[in-house]
Design brief:
CATH topology: FAD/NAD(P)-binding domain
CATH architecture: 3-Layer(bba) Sandwich
CATH superfamily: FAD/NAD(P)-binding domain
Structural class: alpha+beta
Shape: globular
Number of helices: 10
Helix content: 25-40%
Strand content: 25-35%
Order of helices and strands: EHEEHEEEEHEEEEHEEEEHHEEEEHHHH
Largest sheet: 8 strands, mixed
Distance between the termini: 60 Å
Length: 396
């Protein structure tokens, strides 16, 4: 009979959050298993088109990747700093955020999902305490001071702590009996990339429209921008099926700032929903990333929340008492308590904004546009909001 391999930590899921969690655990000297498919580690050709799936990483998220020694592997020619963001309401109001005014080097850093996966995958290959297990999760079985993970095909491993990083439809979460509550926003995100006639100057643009949804144009390297349009389902279906007409549809809004737009690839779409869970931890189990929460993308904070989960989990593990193993319930409660407030606040804020800007009555219009103008007139409040989004909190 073959003996089952035992690990300190088993991370299920090889997305950005999962790779970061596994890499960080291994760097703490914990014997770690990473369960999931392998990711490509070959650098993209200089002329390769940009992915339509991009992220706006907060400074704290970039800091975590630097700590994990993965950020140096990112191709900086495919990265774009955001220096300023301009947010437009539906009645002429505007709110602007400026990194310089908040004493920050950048508001965010735009990077492709594929580039993050490649850089983290490369770093994982050099982690001495990390073992890659290419397989698909099937079931959990409690085993005293460990948990057995059964994989498709009959393979099994044991771990003192299981980290569920397997996405919004998490099989590990379901196997642990943790309930997830899903709410549809009635919107679909349409994403596409464009070349722009004028330089974007590192400025992100965002428009709120109760009829057409939330439209964001994020700067990419060179004279290119990435569109994230959170549109009502019927409109989104039309936009996704007629990608060639997207540029002309964006022209009235984007034209004054970017000039003419030219599509440089197909559009993709995915439905938007909010997912919350009853708890972030279970018996020898912790949820991170989309397995733990999904929020509306209007603030671009989904991956940042997930990487903040990973950062906090690693902090708790690094600071644990020597006699506690990684799956000790005391440690899991520390992790859950520390994430409750930031996740709850971000969920509340994004949900409230999505609902407020989806309504087209006179009162809602007045409230949201007064709100944008009021915040724009209060530099200290804007600076505090920027620092919170950056993961640094308000300056004392």
């Amino acid at each position: 009979m073959t003996q089952t391999a035992t690990f300190d930590i088993a991370v299920v899921g090889a997305g950005v959050a999962g790779l970061a969690a596994a890499l960080g655990s291994a760097q703490l000297g914990l014997r770690t298993a990473l369960v999931g498919p392998r990711v490509p580690v070959d650098r993209a050709a200089a002329a390769a088109p940009f992915d339509v799936r991009i992220y706006a990483l907060a400074p704290a998220a970039v800091g975590l990747l630097e700590q994990l020694k993965a950020w140096p592997a990112v191709d900086l020619s495919r990265v774009q700093a955001v220096a300023k963001m301009r947010v437009f309401g539906d009645s002429g109001s505007e709110l602007s955020f400026d990194a310089y005014q908040a004493a920050l080097p950048t508001l965010a850093t735009i990077v492709e999902e594929s580039e993050l996966l490649r850089a983290l995958g490369a770093a994982v290959g050099f982690a001495a305490e990390l073992q890659r297990i290419v397989g698909t999760f099937d079931a959990l079985q409690p085993q005293g001071e460990a948990t057995r993970l059964l994989l498709a095909g009959g393979q099994a491993i044991e771990a003192r702590l299981v980290v569920a990083a397997d996405g919004s439809r998490s099989s590990v979460r379901a196997a642990a009996g943790i309930n997830a509550h899903e709410l549809s926003y009635g919107q679909t995100a349409v994403v596409a990339n464009f070349a722009c006639e004028r330089p974007h100057q590192g400025v992100a643009l965002q428009w709120f429209d109760p009829a057409e949804g939330v439209i964001a144009l994020l700067p990419l390297p060179g004279e290119r921008v990435s569109l994230v349009w959170s549109a009502p389902h019927p409109l989104a279906e039309m936009l996704a099926n007629e990608a060639a007409s997207l540029a002309s549809r964006l022209a009235p809004r984007a034209g004054p700032y970017l000039g003419a737009l030219t599509a440089i690839g197909p559009a993709r779409s995915f439905p938007l929903r909010r997912i919350s869970v009853d708890r972030l931890v279970g018996r020898r189990l912790a949820l991170v990333g989309d397995a733990a929460h999904v929020v509306h993308p209007l603030a671009g904070q989904g991956l940042n929340l997930g990487l903040a989960d990973v950062s906090e989990m690693l902090r708790v593990l690094a600071g644990r008492e020597q006699w506690r193993d990684p799956g000790d319930p005391v440690l899991l409660r520390r992790y859950e308590r520390s994430r409750a407030e930031p996740v709850g606040l971000m969920r509340l804020a994004t949900h409230a904004l999505a609902r407020l800007f989806a309504r087209d009555d006179a009162v809602s219009r007045e409230v949201r546009n007064l709100g944008l103008s009021a915040v724009d007139a209060l530099p200290p409040l804007k600076a505090a909001l920027i620092r919170h989004a950056a993961g640094q909190g308000a300056r004392r």
